[in-house]
Amino acid sequence: MKIVFAKTNGMIVNISGGGCPDVPYLYTRLVGSHLETALRPRDLGFTLCSLMLDRAWEEALSIWKGGKLS
Domain residues for 8? Predict the structure, then answer.
């Protein structure tokens, strides 16, 4: 799973990957939200895709806050 955010303002602009039935739902709930205020993907879905998207969200949030990739 991938999450794409705007470097200028931290808004989530796209998510992609996986093949789980909840990916369109996750897309509608996350795209347009700010990384720091978006709900965690693991709290929105119950599939492996939502768990992997949550890991991608954690990395994106770390990058947004000036951290490094782990």
Answer: 2-64
**Each residue's pLDDT tens digit in the chain (70 positions)?**
999 999 999 999 999 988 899 999 999 999 999 999 999 999 999 899 999 999 999 999 999 998 766 5
**How many C-beta atoms lie closer than 10 Å to residue 14's C-beta?**
11
Residue 7 located in a structural domain: yes
The reply to whether 70 falls in a domain is: no
Q: Quote the CA–CA distance of 45 and 62 in Å, as a whole number.
A: 22
Q: Are strands 12-16 and 2-5 parallel, antiparallel or unpaired?
A: antiparallel
How many folded domains does the chain comprise? 1
Q: Output the pTM of the full model.
A: 0.89
- Residue 69, domain member (yes or no): no
